[in-house]
Design goal:
The chain has a domain of about 25 residues. Helix content is about 65%, strand content about 0%. The chain is mostly helical. It has two helices and no strands. The longest helix has 30 residues.
């Protein structure tokens, strides 16, 4: 899923992921809500992975134009 608008920083997503994981561990939800929480956790994990990958790529390619210059 591509996000066109960034509403939160990478650090905020990391914190939200941690909090959601804690809620999931400590809650006794009915199956339907458990499924929704699991899906939300998966989306947060994917977002955090994408942010880390993007940050790592930016760190490796400062300026980004060196690869295309001839």
């Amino acid at each position: 899923m591509t996000r066109s608008v960034r509403l939160y920083t990478a650090a905020q997503f990391e914190e939200a992921k941690t909090l959601v994981d804690l809620v999931a561990e400590r809650s006794d939800l009915p199956p339907a809500e458990r499924d929704r929480l699991t899906a939300f956790q998966a989306d947060l994990r994917q977002t955090v992975r994408e942010d880390r990958r993007r940050a790592a790529g930016a760190a490796r390619l400062p300026g980004g134009s060196e690869l295309t210059a001839q």
